[in-house]
Design brief:
The structure holds 2 protein chains of 2 kinds. In chain A, 87% of the residues lie in helices and 0% in strands. Chain A is mostly helical. In chain A, helix 4 crosses helix 7 (164-197). The longest helix of chain B is centred in the C-terminal third of the chain and has 33 residues, at 254-286. By secondary structure, chain B is an alpha+beta fold. In chain B, the strands form 2 sheets. In chain B, strands 8-7-10-11-12-13-9 form a 7-stranded antiparallel sheet. Chain B has a 6-stranded antiparallel sheet with strand order 1-2-3-6-5-4. Chain B is built from 7 helices and 13 strands. Chain B has helices at 2-24, 82-87, 123-135, 155-158, 229-248, 254-286, 290-317; strands at residues 47-49, 55-58, 61-65, 90-97, 103-110, 115-122, 138-141, 151-154, 161-166, 178-183, 191-197, 202-206, 220-225. Chain B is elongated and about 95 Å long. Helix content of chain B is 40%, strand content 23%. The chains are: A mainly alpha, B alpha+beta. The A-B interface holds A 70, 73-74, 77, 104, 183, 187, 207, 210-211, 214-215, 218-219, 222, 224, 226-228, 230-232, 235-236, 243, 247, 250-251, 253-254, 257-258, 260-261, 264-265, 267-268, 271-272 and B 1-6, 9-10, 13, 17, 247-249, 252, 254, 257-258, 260-261, 264-265, 268-269, 273, 276, 291-292, 295-296, 298-299, 302-303, 305-306, 309-310, 312-313, 316-318.
């Protein structure tokens, strides 16, 4: 049953999402050419060949590309938010909760839908950045020296990290996946809390709670990274590789477990609201 | 929304960090402590020079060219030659002063981009200054690097051993790191020279000896090797404090930063999951519904694992 639920959830998000994704890819192609033009205008040899109008347009294009990335991320959040809210807390909720499925399956479907949407968005943004760099620095990329340096860099990395390369890669993938799932679960909880505490203006309240809660979390992490990172980095930079490499992997594992724990807590809250505090009136 | 909000918060914090850095910047090698009164005076307002540009009139005060100090960024535009000065239109005169306003440091900017840099001293102190130079008994060293802590030094210890060094020979981590030494009369606060700090030594450079040096590599300086171990130690402590401030921000030093880190670390990575673990176990026992029991069990296992992992990391990181 989860598959069926997921199918409809994904359909509702991706029927609009792909338009934004294609648009952002298109923008990135322009962005890549803008980088080429700006590089030409900065170079003494080719500067005179670049018309000023083209240079100005390229300077405007790059911030637009950046805005395109933000718009894609924003649209994904809005689509996921809308699907979750409409499906659970609007009139449609009466139908949703009469379906012959467990509440946990309904929640799981939404979490997977949100996670996949975020993952797809991040992948498209990463692809766009690579696309801009490939087009913008094409003349350098086609040179063998670039690939030589590229392989040397990775060769050196494998040599230093050894088997830990695989461990770190795996941990990073897991952290990204959990972050995608967690961020959406966080959003769902804000909506659920809003619908629990107010009867009218649920959407505005949900956005307000989301703003406040995510702002608080970001500020906390920023304060920690501002004042705490130096000490940790200083301590770690004094360590030898025998201690440092296992420590990083252990910290990575700790972060994964921490994210999973937060997910479990948010899942619990989500389930409890849907199960005991659902208010569709 | 979350991303935009995070971005705003990060930008705001970055801006405030930049503010801290900018505030910290004048501490480094700051020769004058600019006062508000002299910080920036436009060329056309209350300021005039004598015809030969050897005197500066600022309001009611008269300043004379400071003979033992004052250098030209571009010798083509010497102040002594008013014709050249007059041929060039001045866009701005930037004045800074020491705290007492006894010494004025002038940077004259021309419309063609050239700059001229020189120093003037208030006339009523000029004679006094010359006497102090001649006697050379005591000097005050601003060992805190920011003008609020002074130490009195016996001038004999500064002038005891004369050496000639190239600029690169007395750099601290690739930069000239210095503090100002003032004349013995603290009330007029007139600079006498600079003390260049190195990890295990320090050199004194008197302004009247190296006035044409700019700090470029290869330039020869006449210096005095400081023969006061206590002073060298104090100066090095100031440098360490300065670097610590630069690294951790002026709001806290390394020790405070470490304490905050450990507090954050324990609060969020060890104590919080520990509380979650205990609460989950209790709720799991009390709960009657199967699915809640299951979630509480998963949460408590995860929280316990997190606590154990970060306790282990704690011993490695902060041992």
């Amino acid at each position: 049953m989860l598959k069926k639920l997921l199918k409809y959830d994904l359909k509702s998000v991706f029927k609009y999402w792909w338009i934004a994704a294609i648009s952002s890819i298109g923008l990135s192609i322009f962005g890549g050419y803008a980088v080429t033009i700006l590089r030409d205008s900065a170079s003494e040899e080719t500067a005179k060949k670049v018309p000023i109008a083209l240079e100005i347009m390229s300077s405007i294009a790059l911030p637009l590309v950046y805005l395109g990335f933000i718009a894609l991320a924003l649209l994904t959040t809005i689509l996921v938010f809308a699907r979750y809210y409409k499906n659970f807390f609007s009139d449609e909720g009466y139908l949703t909760f009469t379906l012959p499925v467990k509440k946990s399956q309904l929640i799981n479907s939404k979490i997977i839908m949100g996670g996949l949407s975020s993952l797809a968005t991040y992948s498209v943004i990463a692809f766009n950045i690579i696309l801009i760099l490939v087009i913008g620095f094409f003349d350098k990329i086609i040179k063998p020296d670039f690939w030589k340096e590229f392989s040397e860099f990775f060769g050196e990395m494998f040599k230093t990290l050894g088997a830990y390369t695989l461990v770190y890669a795996l941990e990073i993938i897991l952290i990204v996946l959990l972050t995608c799932l967690l961020s959406n679960l966080f959003l769902y909880n804000c909506v659920a809390i809003a619908s629990m505490v107010v009867k009218k203006a649920k959407v505005i309240t949900a956005i307000g709670i989301y703003y406040f809660a995510s702002g608080a979390v970001s500020t906390l992490f920023t304060i920690f990274s501002l004042f705490g990172m130096n000490t940790i980095i200083d301590t770690m930079s004094d360590m030898n590789n025998t201690t440092l490499l296992p420590l990083i992997s252990l910290l990575g594992l700790g972060i994964i477990i921490m994210l999973a724990m937060f997910m479990a807590l948010l899942y619990l809250l989500q389930y409890w609201i849907i199960d005991r505090k659902l208010n569709l009136s | 929304m979350k991303k935009i909000l995070s971005l705003i918060v990060v930008v705001l914090l970055l801006v405030s960090c930049l503010g801290v850095t900018v505030n910290a910047a004048p501490l480094y090698g700051d020769y004058y402590e600019p006062s508000d009164e002299f910080s920036k005076i436009p060329a056309h307002k209350e300021i005039s020079f004598s015809e030969d540009y050897k005197e500066l009139y600022l309001g009611e005060k008269t300043y004379s060219r400071f003979n033992t100090y004052g250098f030209y960024l571009d010798t083509e535009y010497q102040l002594d030659n008013p014709k050249i000065i007059n041929d060039k239109s001045v866009s701005e005169i930037y004045l800074t002063a020491n705290k007492k306003g006894t010494v004025i440091d002038a940077t004259i900017s021309y419309n063609d981009g050239a700059e001229l840099h020189c120093s003037f001293m208030e006339n009523k102190y000029l004679e006094e200054y010359k006497n102090i130079i001649a006697n050379n008994s005591k000097l005050f060293v601003d060992f805190s690097l920011n003008g609020d802590k002074y130490i009195e030094v016996d001038a004999e210890k500064l002038f005891a051993k004369k050496v000639t060094l190239k600029t690169e020979d007395f750099m601290y981590d690739g930069e000239l790191f210095y503090v100002s030494a003032f004349t013995s009369d603290k009330s007029i606060e007139i600079p006498r020279g600079e003390l260049y700090i190195l990890p295990d030594t320090a050199y004194f450079s008197s302004y009247d000896m190296n006035k044409n040096n700019y700090g470029n590599d290869g330039e020869e300086w006449i210096l005095y090797e400081v023969q006061d171990e206590k002073l060298i130690k104090k100066l090095n402590e100031s440098v360490e404090e300065y670097y610590s401030d630069m690294e951790y921000g002026t709001l806290m030093n390394e020790k405070t930063s470490k304490t905050i880190t450990i507090l954050f670390y324990w609060a969020f990575l060890i104590i919080l999951p520990f509380i979650v673990m205990i609460a989950s176990i209790i709720l799991m026992i009390l709960s009657k519904t199967k699915i809640y029991k299951k979630i509480y069990l998963i949460t408590s296992i995860l929280a316990a694992t997190q606590t154990v992992i970060f306790v282990i990391c704690n011993f490695i990181l902060f041992k």
